[in-house]
Amino acid sequence: MEKEKFTDEYVASLTIPEHVAVIMDGNGRWAQAKGEPRTYGHIVGSDVVEDMVEIASNLGIKYFTVYAFSTENWKRSEGEVSVLFSLFSEHLKKLQVKSAENNVRCIIIGDKSRLDDDLNKTIDELETSSKNNTGMTFVIAINYGGRDEITRSVKKIASEVQSGKISPDEITEDMISDHLDTGGLPDPDLLIRTGGEQRISNFLLWQCAYSEFYYCDTCWPDFDRNELIKAIEKFNKRDRRFGGVK
Ligand code: FPP
After folding, report:
1. How do residues 56-65 score in pLDDT, each as one tens digit?
2. Residue 212 in 3-state DSSP?
3. CA 219 to centroid of ligand 1, rounded, Å
4. Cα 40–46–47 angle (5° rounding)?
5. Active-site amino acid positions
Protein backbone atom coordinates (compact mmCIF):
# COMPACT_ATOMS: atom_id res chain seq x y z
CA MET A 1 0.00 0.00 0.00
CA GLU A 2 1.15 3.51 -0.81
CA LYS A 3 2.57 5.43 2.15
CA GLU A 4 0.07 7.86 3.72
CA LYS A 5 0.91 11.24 2.21
CA PHE A 6 -1.26 13.41 4.36
CA THR A 7 -0.63 14.17 8.03
CA ASP A 8 -3.49 13.82 10.51
CA GLU A 9 -3.16 17.51 11.24
CA TYR A 10 -3.60 18.39 7.56
CA VAL A 11 -6.61 16.08 7.18
CA ALA A 12 -8.17 17.65 10.29
CA SER A 13 -7.87 21.07 8.64
CA LEU A 14 -10.01 20.00 5.64
CA THR A 15 -13.77 20.43 5.34
CA ILE A 16 -15.11 16.91 4.91
CA PRO A 17 -18.03 16.70 2.44
CA GLU A 18 -21.13 15.25 4.08
CA HIS A 19 -21.98 12.99 1.13
CA VAL A 20 -19.41 11.52 -1.28
CA ALA A 21 -20.58 9.42 -4.23
CA VAL A 22 -18.25 7.37 -6.43
CA ILE A 23 -18.41 5.96 -9.96
CA MET A 24 -15.91 3.13 -9.56
CA ASP A 25 -14.55 2.91 -13.09
CA GLY A 26 -11.51 1.25 -14.65
CA ASN A 27 -11.63 -2.25 -13.12
CA GLY A 28 -11.53 -4.01 -16.49
CA ARG A 29 -8.75 -1.87 -17.99
CA TRP A 30 -6.69 -2.16 -14.80
CA ALA A 31 -6.86 -5.95 -14.93
CA GLN A 32 -6.20 -6.15 -18.67
CA ALA A 33 -3.11 -3.96 -18.29
CA LYS A 34 -1.79 -6.62 -15.94
CA GLY A 35 -2.61 -9.39 -18.42
CA GLU A 36 -5.49 -10.60 -16.23
CA PRO A 37 -9.18 -11.09 -17.14
CA ARG A 38 -11.48 -8.10 -16.56
CA THR A 39 -13.16 -9.90 -13.69
CA TYR A 40 -9.91 -9.83 -11.70
CA GLY A 41 -10.36 -6.04 -11.59
CA HIS A 42 -13.83 -6.49 -10.06
CA ILE A 43 -12.45 -8.90 -7.45
CA VAL A 44 -9.74 -6.45 -6.34
CA GLY A 45 -12.22 -3.55 -6.71
CA SER A 46 -14.60 -5.25 -4.28
CA ASP A 47 -11.87 -5.40 -1.65
CA VAL A 48 -11.27 -1.69 -2.19
CA VAL A 49 -14.99 -1.06 -1.58
CA GLU A 50 -14.70 -2.84 1.77
CA ASP A 51 -11.58 -0.85 2.72
CA MET A 52 -13.32 2.38 1.73
CA VAL A 53 -16.19 1.80 4.15
CA GLU A 54 -13.76 2.06 7.04
CA ILE A 55 -11.61 4.79 5.48
CA ALA A 56 -14.57 7.05 4.57
CA SER A 57 -16.17 6.53 7.95
CA ASN A 58 -12.93 7.32 9.80
CA LEU A 59 -12.53 10.52 7.77
CA GLY A 60 -15.92 11.67 9.05
CA ILE A 61 -17.88 11.29 5.79
CA LYS A 62 -21.53 10.87 6.78
CA TYR A 63 -22.87 9.35 3.53
CA PHE A 64 -20.79 7.32 1.07
CA THR A 65 -22.43 6.01 -2.11
CA VAL A 66 -20.94 3.63 -4.68
CA TYR A 67 -22.18 2.71 -8.17
CA ALA A 68 -21.77 -1.08 -8.26
CA PHE A 69 -24.01 -2.09 -11.19
CA SER A 70 -26.01 0.05 -13.59
CA THR A 71 -29.22 -0.77 -15.43
CA GLU A 72 -27.02 -0.77 -18.55
CA ASN A 73 -24.40 -3.19 -17.17
CA TRP A 74 -26.61 -6.20 -18.10
CA LYS A 75 -25.23 -5.72 -21.63
CA ARG A 76 -21.88 -7.17 -20.47
CA SER A 77 -21.00 -10.82 -21.04
CA GLU A 78 -22.92 -13.39 -19.00
CA GLY A 79 -19.65 -14.44 -17.36
CA GLU A 80 -18.77 -10.92 -16.20
CA VAL A 81 -22.30 -10.26 -14.89
CA SER A 82 -22.25 -13.55 -13.03
CA VAL A 83 -18.88 -12.78 -11.37
CA LEU A 84 -20.14 -9.34 -10.36
CA PHE A 85 -23.27 -10.78 -8.76
CA SER A 86 -21.33 -13.41 -6.82
CA LEU A 87 -19.07 -10.62 -5.57
CA PHE A 88 -22.10 -8.59 -4.44
CA SER A 89 -23.48 -11.58 -2.59
CA GLU A 90 -20.14 -12.39 -0.91
CA HIS A 91 -19.33 -8.81 0.08
CA LEU A 92 -22.83 -7.87 1.26
CA LYS A 93 -22.62 -10.81 3.66
CA LYS A 94 -19.20 -9.67 4.86
CA LEU A 95 -20.57 -6.16 5.23
CA GLN A 96 -22.95 -7.37 7.92
CA VAL A 97 -19.94 -7.90 10.19
CA LYS A 98 -18.06 -4.81 9.00
CA SER A 99 -21.08 -2.52 9.40
CA ALA A 100 -21.62 -3.75 12.96
CA GLU A 101 -17.93 -3.20 13.83
CA ASN A 102 -17.93 0.30 12.35
CA ASN A 103 -21.47 1.41 13.33
CA VAL A 104 -22.31 1.83 9.62
CA ARG A 105 -25.86 1.77 8.22
CA CYS A 106 -26.14 0.09 4.79
CA ILE A 107 -28.76 0.86 2.15
CA ILE A 108 -29.07 -0.64 -1.33
CA ILE A 109 -30.63 1.52 -4.06
CA GLY A 110 -31.75 0.54 -7.56
CA ASP A 111 -34.48 -1.65 -8.99
CA LYS A 112 -34.25 -4.75 -6.80
CA SER A 113 -37.12 -6.50 -8.62
CA ARG A 114 -34.66 -7.88 -11.20
CA LEU A 115 -32.31 -9.30 -8.54
CA ASP A 116 -32.71 -12.93 -7.51
CA ASP A 117 -34.38 -14.01 -4.25
CA ASP A 118 -31.12 -15.00 -2.55
CA LEU A 119 -29.54 -11.61 -3.18
CA ASN A 120 -32.72 -9.83 -2.09
CA LYS A 121 -32.62 -11.85 1.13
CA THR A 122 -28.96 -10.90 1.73
CA ILE A 123 -29.87 -7.24 1.07
CA ASP A 124 -32.80 -7.39 3.53
CA GLU A 125 -30.60 -8.95 6.19
CA LEU A 126 -27.88 -6.34 5.73
CA GLU A 127 -30.31 -3.40 5.73
CA THR A 128 -32.22 -4.72 8.73
CA SER A 129 -29.17 -5.63 10.82
CA SER A 130 -27.55 -2.24 10.21
CA LYS A 131 -30.60 0.05 10.26
CA ASN A 132 -30.05 1.36 13.79
CA ASN A 133 -26.35 2.07 13.31
CA THR A 134 -25.72 5.76 13.86
CA GLY A 135 -22.38 6.29 12.07
CA MET A 136 -21.84 6.62 8.32
CA THR A 137 -24.56 5.60 5.88
CA PHE A 138 -23.12 3.42 3.11
CA VAL A 139 -25.27 3.33 -0.02
CA ILE A 140 -24.67 0.72 -2.72
CA ALA A 141 -26.34 1.15 -6.11
CA ILE A 142 -27.17 -2.20 -7.76
CA ASN A 143 -29.24 -2.39 -10.95
CA TYR A 144 -29.43 1.36 -10.60
CA GLY A 145 -30.08 3.92 -13.33
CA GLY A 146 -30.89 7.57 -12.71
CA ARG A 147 -33.52 7.68 -15.45
CA ASP A 148 -35.05 4.42 -14.27
CA GLU A 149 -35.20 5.75 -10.70
CA ILE A 150 -36.89 8.99 -11.82
CA THR A 151 -39.35 7.00 -13.95
CA ARG A 152 -40.25 4.74 -10.99
CA SER A 153 -40.67 7.79 -8.79
CA VAL A 154 -42.96 9.49 -11.33
CA LYS A 155 -45.09 6.32 -11.51
CA LYS A 156 -45.51 6.31 -7.70
CA ILE A 157 -46.53 9.98 -7.68
CA ALA A 158 -48.88 9.46 -10.66
CA SER A 159 -50.72 6.71 -8.80
CA GLU A 160 -51.09 9.01 -5.79
CA VAL A 161 -52.63 11.61 -8.10
CA GLN A 162 -54.86 8.98 -9.70
CA SER A 163 -56.14 7.80 -6.33
CA GLY A 164 -56.92 11.40 -5.36
CA LYS A 165 -54.39 11.47 -2.50
CA ILE A 166 -52.70 14.53 -4.02
CA SER A 167 -53.45 16.96 -6.84
CA PRO A 168 -50.92 17.70 -9.64
CA ASP A 169 -50.45 21.23 -8.22
CA GLU A 170 -49.18 19.77 -4.97
CA ILE A 171 -46.20 18.05 -6.64
CA THR A 172 -42.99 19.71 -5.44
CA GLU A 173 -39.25 19.09 -5.95
CA ASP A 174 -39.06 17.79 -2.37
CA MET A 175 -41.85 15.32 -3.11
CA ILE A 176 -39.97 14.01 -6.14
CA SER A 177 -36.75 13.71 -4.06
CA ASP A 178 -38.64 11.80 -1.37
CA HIS A 179 -39.99 9.29 -3.91
CA LEU A 180 -36.53 8.47 -5.27
CA ASP A 181 -34.63 5.45 -3.90
CA THR A 182 -32.47 8.00 -2.06
CA GLY A 183 -35.50 9.57 -0.32
CA GLY A 184 -34.39 10.95 3.04
CA LEU A 185 -30.69 11.06 2.10
CA PRO A 186 -28.91 14.37 1.37
CA ASP A 187 -27.69 15.04 -2.19
CA PRO A 188 -24.00 14.25 -2.86
CA ASP A 189 -21.63 17.16 -2.23
CA LEU A 190 -18.80 15.48 -4.14
CA LEU A 191 -19.02 13.02 -7.03
CA ILE A 192 -15.79 11.16 -7.80
CA ARG A 193 -15.23 9.19 -10.99
CA THR A 194 -12.11 7.05 -11.24
CA GLY A 195 -10.61 5.54 -14.40
CA GLY A 196 -10.09 8.67 -16.53
CA GLU A 197 -13.53 9.04 -18.15
CA GLN A 198 -15.49 12.23 -17.58
CA ARG A 199 -19.20 11.45 -17.74
CA ILE A 200 -22.07 10.78 -15.35
CA SER A 201 -23.29 7.48 -16.90
CA ASN A 202 -26.87 7.70 -15.59
CA PHE A 203 -25.78 7.96 -11.93
CA LEU A 204 -27.81 10.04 -9.44
CA LEU A 205 -29.02 12.39 -12.19
CA TRP A 206 -31.51 14.27 -10.01
CA GLN A 207 -29.35 14.25 -6.89
CA CYS A 208 -26.15 15.59 -8.52
CA ALA A 209 -27.72 18.88 -9.67
CA TYR A 210 -25.26 20.84 -7.50
CA SER A 211 -22.56 18.27 -6.73
CA GLU A 212 -18.91 19.07 -7.32
CA PHE A 213 -17.42 16.62 -9.85
CA TYR A 214 -13.92 15.22 -9.46
CA TYR A 215 -12.30 12.97 -12.05
CA CYS A 216 -9.04 11.08 -11.62
CA ASP A 217 -7.04 8.77 -13.88
CA THR A 218 -6.47 6.23 -11.11
CA CYS A 219 -8.45 3.05 -11.78
CA TRP A 220 -10.75 1.90 -8.97
CA PRO A 221 -8.59 -1.09 -7.85
CA ASP A 222 -5.75 1.39 -7.10
CA PHE A 223 -7.98 3.88 -5.30
CA ASP A 224 -7.00 4.33 -1.65
CA ARG A 225 -7.11 6.74 1.30
CA ASN A 226 -4.59 9.11 -0.32
CA GLU A 227 -6.70 9.28 -3.49
CA LEU A 228 -9.83 10.00 -1.49
CA ILE A 229 -8.10 12.78 0.44
CA LYS A 230 -6.79 14.25 -2.84
CA ALA A 231 -10.41 14.46 -4.05
CA ILE A 232 -11.51 16.07 -0.77
CA GLU A 233 -8.60 18.51 -1.03
CA LYS A 234 -9.83 19.61 -4.49
CA PHE A 235 -13.39 19.86 -3.13
CA ASN A 236 -12.06 22.27 -0.47
CA LYS A 237 -10.82 24.60 -3.22
CA ARG A 238 -14.18 24.77 -4.99
CA ASP A 239 -16.44 27.77 -4.56
CA ARG A 240 -19.97 26.41 -4.24
CA ARG A 241 -22.55 29.03 -5.12
CA PHE A 242 -25.58 26.85 -5.90
CA GLY A 243 -26.55 29.23 -8.72
CA GLY A 244 -26.27 32.33 -6.53
CA VAL A 245 -23.52 34.95 -6.24
CA LYS A 246 -21.14 35.66 -3.38
C1 FPP B 1 -16.63 -0.23 -13.80
O2 FPP B 1 -15.37 -0.67 -14.29
C3 FPP B 1 -17.01 -1.07 -12.69
C4 FPP B 1 -18.14 -1.81 -12.61
C5 FPP B 1 -19.15 -1.83 -13.68
C6 FPP B 1 -18.39 -2.67 -11.45
C7 FPP B 1 -18.04 -2.05 -10.14
C8 FPP B 1 -18.20 -3.07 -9.10
C9 FPP B 1 -17.30 -3.33 -8.13
C10 FPP B 1 -16.05 -2.55 -7.90
C11 FPP B 1 -17.62 -4.38 -7.13
C12 FPP B 1 -18.42 -3.74 -6.05
C13 FPP B 1 -18.61 -4.61 -4.94
C14 FPP B 1 -19.45 -4.34 -3.91
C15 FPP B 1 -19.38 -5.19 -2.75
C16 FPP B 1 -20.40 -3.24 -3.90
P17 FPP B 1 -15.29 -1.26 -15.75
O18 FPP B 1 -15.26 -2.73 -15.65
O19 FPP B 1 -16.35 -0.67 -16.60
O20 FPP B 1 -13.89 -0.74 -16.17
P21 FPP B 1 -13.41 -0.44 -17.62
O22 FPP B 1 -13.91 0.94 -17.94
O23 FPP B 1 -11.95 -0.49 -17.44
O24 FPP B 1 -13.93 -1.49 -18.56
Report:
1. 999 999 999 9
2. strand
3. 10
4. 100
5. 25, 73
